[in-house]
Amino acid sequence: MAEWITSRDNGKVKYACKLAQSAAFRTGENAFFAEGLKLCLELEKGCLLKVIFYTQKALEKTPALAELRCEQYLVEEHVAEKLAGVKSPQGVFGVFEKPAGDLEQMKRSGRLLALERVQDPGNVGALVRSAAAFGFGGILLSPGCADPFGPKALRASMGAAGRLPVLTVPHLPDALAQLEKDGVACLAAALYNSRPLSEAAGPWPGGLCVVIGSEGQGLSDEAVHACREAVRIPMTDRVESLNAGAAGSVLLWHFRGEGL
Q1: 166 vs 215, which has greater pLDDT?
Q2: Burial, 189: exposed, middle or buried (Cβ in 10 Å; 0-12, 13-18, 19+)?
Q3: How many Å apart are CA 231 and CA 199, to the nearest integer?
Q4: CA gap 18, 212 in Å, rounded
């Protein structure tokens, strides 16, 4: 039976709001917050759902919410507005445990994605979604990347963040150098001193890692030098470049898993 929450100052509500607002708090708590019925149910397939909040209207529309195995709270509409931060909340909110990221396990998948200083949450979310769609087994992040478990990135990934292990490393070039040492081919997305994507066909017996840089500066020289080679997407001269989300998705499709 769900408990009623009638106050916007309730401690559970304040905790959930802080998870939504602070990446540092999410890291410290090893938890994150999500809004929306579809998103929460999708995340629940891959992550531990710890707490769910819902309005009476949402419960009447989806009675199965009451059957979820977690702490449950029925919230009034004005409380839902605080959780959502907007006047028209979706009425369903979840607090989830972050999935663990283990590099050794990720390497066994054969395909990794690494992001360096990709700061736009929409791009990070889109890349997480593409990585899941194209058979990649894990994601490495440098410091300075948008948090894939922040609200905007979660919406862009449509719950895919709950299906892939994600690991933030202290220094991405060092992590790439170690992957190369372990036999994983690291391929840097770069415009200069690179070869066309069509020429980078493998095979990659030790696995591969696609490395994508920030929207403005691309990859650092140190990250590129840590990789086996640099590749570029051939384009017409009508545009100078693609954004990180679009370019990364093209690369992830090109290096997709077998059978896709």
Answers
A1: 166
A2: buried
A3: 9
A4: 30
What is the C-alpha to C-alpha distance for residues 49 and 57, in angstroms, rounded to an integer?
21
The phi and psi torsions of 173 (rounded to 5 degrees) equal -55, -40
Pairing type for strands 195-196 and 139-141 reads unpaired
Q: What pLDDT is recorded for position 131? A: 95
Only one residue has tokens 């095979």, namely 203
pLDDT band for position 18 (cuts 50, 70, 90): very high
Distance CA 191, CA 252 (A): 17
- Bridge partners (DSSP) of residue 71 are 51
What does the alpha-carbon distance between residue 260 and residue 244 come to, in Å, rounded to a whole number?
22
71: helix, coil or strand? Answer: strand
pLDDT tens by residue, 86-108 = 677 889 999 999 988 788 888 88
- The span from the CA of 256 to the CA of 128, in Å, is 14
Max Cα–Cα distance, the chain, nearest Å: 62
Whether the Cβ atoms of residue 11 and residue 82 lie closer than 8 Å to each other: no
Separation between Cα atoms, residue 157 and residue 154, nearest integer Å:
5
One-letter amino acid for residue 232 of the chain? R
Q: How far apart are CA 69 and CA 67, in angstroms?
A: 6
Alpha-carbon distance values, 92 to 45, 70, 88, 89, 213 (Å): 16, 14, 12, 8, 35
Q: What is the CA radius of gyration of the chain?
A: 20
On whether the CB atoms of residues 111 and 211 are closer than 8 A, the answer is no
